[in-house]
Description:
Blueprint: E1 6-11, H1 15-26, E2 33-38, H2 41-50, E3 55-59, E4 61-62, E5 65-66, H3 67-76, E6 83-87, H4 92-101, E7 105-108, H5 114-139, H6 149-166, E8 170-177, H7 180-187, H8 189-204, E9 212-217, E10 220-226, H9 230-246, E11 249-250, E12 256-257, E13 261-268, H10 275-291, E14 297-299
Parallel strand pairs: 1-2, 1-3, 3-6, 6-7, 13-14
Antiparallel strand pairs: 4-5, 8-10, 8-13, 9-10, 11-12
Helix pairs in contact: 1-5, 2-3, 7-8
Amino acid sequence: MAAPARKILLIDDDRMQFRLTQAHFKNFRRERYELDWAATYEEGLQKLLHGTHVACLLDYRLGERNGLQLIHEAVARGCRTPIVFLTAETAERVDIEAMNAGALDYLVKGEITPRMIERSLRYALKLGETLEALRRLATRDQLTGLLNRREFERILPDEEERARRFGHPLALVMFDIDHFKLVNDTHGHPAGDVVLREVARRVAAEVRTVDRVVRFGGEELVLILVQTDRPGALNVARRVCAMVARKPIGVGESVALHVTVSAGVGVFPDDADSGLALLNAADRALYAAKARGRNRAVAFTEL
């Protein structure tokens, strides 16, 4: 069975350009794509952010606004769909601005042929894959796949600013795998890696898609819980502790380890007036959880 055609989004306020692009797609030699169309800035942005298209062809002129503005807004809202910029302008300034805004290629409308647009899409998709792989290497922990500490240090000030501006609480939960050194010393570092990966998976499964899960360092994990107060954060922390402890983790054919975690909870602005102070509050609460017997969650206010 042939694979379904991948979807390309065209954002252009000219129906004739949509028909012309459809005709170009029918003459592609190597690839099969399904062309979707958005005729306005607003519709195009909504579809682009939905994430169901593998690439986007974006016109420069979109009524009162233009494609450059749309790229900036889409990128600011987390869009990573490869974009090929379409313009009737031949000025070098427009081309450079499009590439600087985040477009991966550009085409001048009057010069487009089926072969040219097919090549441009193939190039944009390949470059997009490469950039995504590099972004993952820069932001993700290689062992667990969680966000890394560098990305945590980038995200936390942004979330602090957002919480401060809108008056929403922001919670941090710091986890530590109990007696993790003993796992490494007794069963070896490969077994420790298995435990860490599985704990990371169980922790990530208990949070919302809007929250962030970070490998902070060693066996420490951190949750960034947006718009979450102390009771809500404690509930998440206790749920994670129970989930981790519920089922042993197999580290070999006949070895299954009972693993637990301890958790410390801090909430902005009640427990701290900055992101750094919030991290310190969660860390102090974690230390208290371990001192009180481990396999539990402690809030900063309980110190």
